């Protein structure tokens, strides 16, 4: 008989336990045989039966629920974001080595899982993947669906990781914490941030906000802030319109917390294609900024 999910993920986490730092006192942590992550000062966090750990030190409410994460999983697995996954992978491949990757605001984990799989299928290298999200429902789903990864409920502002633990930080359509990213990255590490561009899911926006086209949309400020925090920054825009399976359209509408669907009285059957329009910001943490 196989190991229980809880024991299997505790074992996996133990192999990587040097990356953990207590979110309360910042001491080194160990993962015990009893499936508890604990520090010297006996702050303890249990591995849950779904194979994740809740590192929250304060209660948090999230506007992201179970239904939303199930919808995101289906949409992401449908391949809608493959061009983005490929662009991310290209930057990971430049390392030419095994990588430790943290997805910040990972939600239900499908992006990280797909990127890890594709990376391992197309290179000789492995990824140790960790995901953190403040939304418990997302992490429960991640733990349930994806094994051999480290899934943590936690707040980026109080993350349960040691400094200089990651080669890559992913930050996909989620809030960033640049001070924390810089602390967590190894000296040669990179951060990959994905932000929506003006055409992102525009067919849905048209449906719900028919009278308010965001003509003057710009990511300039985001790019500027990113450049203030990282060096050798590149920005790549990925735009692609694809046909969408009609059965996925209701899923798309549940993918966002903004309650677009509540305002919609338009006919969702008219949506036959969907546009992905994203900026991919990549930067290095090192201060080797080219002042040449
Ligand atoms: C739009 S969702 C994107 C989720 C996922 N990256 C995806 O693309 O499917 C934004 C995510 O950021 C998470 N988040 C927001 N603030 C956070 C924080 N302080 N720490 C960790 N996660 C946070 C939310 O819970 C949510 O899952
Ligand atoms: Zn502690």
Can you describe this structure?
Strands 4-7-6-5-8-9-11-10 form an 8-stranded mixed beta sheet, sandwiched between helices. Strands 1-2-3 form a 3-stranded antiparallel beta sheet. The longest helix is centred in the middle third of the chain and has 13 residues. The protein is α/β, with parallel strands linked by helices. The radius of gyration is 19 Å and the shape is globular. The protein has a single domain, classed as Vaccinia Virus protein VP39 (Rossmann fold, 3-Layer(aba) Sandwich), CATH 3.40.50. The mean pLDDT is 91. α3 crosses α4. 32% of the residues lie in helices and 25% in strands. Bound molecules: S-adenosylmethionine (SAM) and zinc ion (ZN). S-adenosylmethionine binds next to β6.
Summarize the structure.
By secondary structure, this protein is α/β, with parallel strands linked by helices. It is 32% helix and 25% strand.
Number of domains: 1
- Alpha-carbon Rg, integer: 19 Å
Task: Please write the string of helix (H) and strand (E) elements.
Answer: HEEEEHHEHEHEEHEHHEHHE
Separation of the first and last Cα atoms: 61 Å
Looking at the structure, the CATH topology is: Rossmann fold
Quickly give the structural class: alpha/beta
Q: Could you tell me the strand content as a percent range?
A: 25-35%
Can you tell me the CATH class?
Alpha Beta
Helicity range of the residues?
25-40%
Query: Can you name the CATH architecture?
Result: 3-Layer(aba) Sandwich
Q: Count every beta strand, where a strand is a DSSP E run of 2 or more residues.
A: 11
Strand arrangement, major sheet: 4-7-6-5-8-9-11-10
The biggest beta sheet reads:
8 strands, mixed
Number of helices: 10
Average pLDDT value?
Answer: 91
* Ligand types: S-adenosylmethionine, zinc ion
Overall 3D shape: globular
């Amino acid at each position: 008989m196989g190991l229980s999910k809880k024991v299997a993920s505790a074992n996996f986490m133990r192999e990587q336990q040097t990356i953990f730092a207590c979110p309360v006192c910042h001491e080194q942590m160990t993962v015990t045989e009893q499936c508890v992550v604990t520090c010297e000062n006996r702050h303890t966090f249990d591995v849950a039966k779904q194979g994740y750990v809740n590192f929250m030190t304060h209660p948090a409410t999230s506007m992201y629920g179970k239904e939303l994460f199930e919808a995101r999983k289906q949409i992401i697995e449908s391949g809608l974001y493959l061009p983005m996954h490929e662009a991310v992978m290209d930057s990971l491949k430049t390392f030419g080595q095994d990588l430790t990757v943290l997805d910040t605001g990972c939600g239900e984990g499908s992006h990280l899982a797909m990127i890890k799989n594709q990376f391992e299928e197309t290179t000789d290298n492995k990824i140790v993947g960790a995901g953190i999200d403040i939304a418990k429902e997302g992490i429960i789903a991640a733990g349930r669906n994806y094994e051999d990864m480290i899934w943590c409920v936690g707040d980026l502002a109080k993350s349960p990781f040691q400094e200089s633990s990651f080669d890559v930080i992913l930050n996909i359509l989620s809030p960033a914490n640049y001070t924390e990213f810089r602390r967590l990255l190894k000296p040669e590490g990179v951060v990959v941030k994905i932000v929506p561009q003006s055409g992102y899911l525009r067919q849905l926006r048209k449906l719900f906000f028919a009278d308010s086209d965001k003509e003057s949309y710009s990511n300039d400020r985001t790019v500027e802030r990113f450049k203030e925090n990282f060096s050798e920054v590149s920005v790549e825009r990925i735009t692609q319109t694809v046909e969408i399976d009609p059965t996925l359209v209701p899923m798309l509408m549940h993918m966002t917390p903004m309650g677009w669907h509540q305002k919609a009285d338009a006919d969702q059957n008219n949506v036959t294609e969907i546009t992905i329009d994203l900026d991919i910001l990549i930067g290095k943490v090192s201060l080797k900024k080219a002042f040449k």
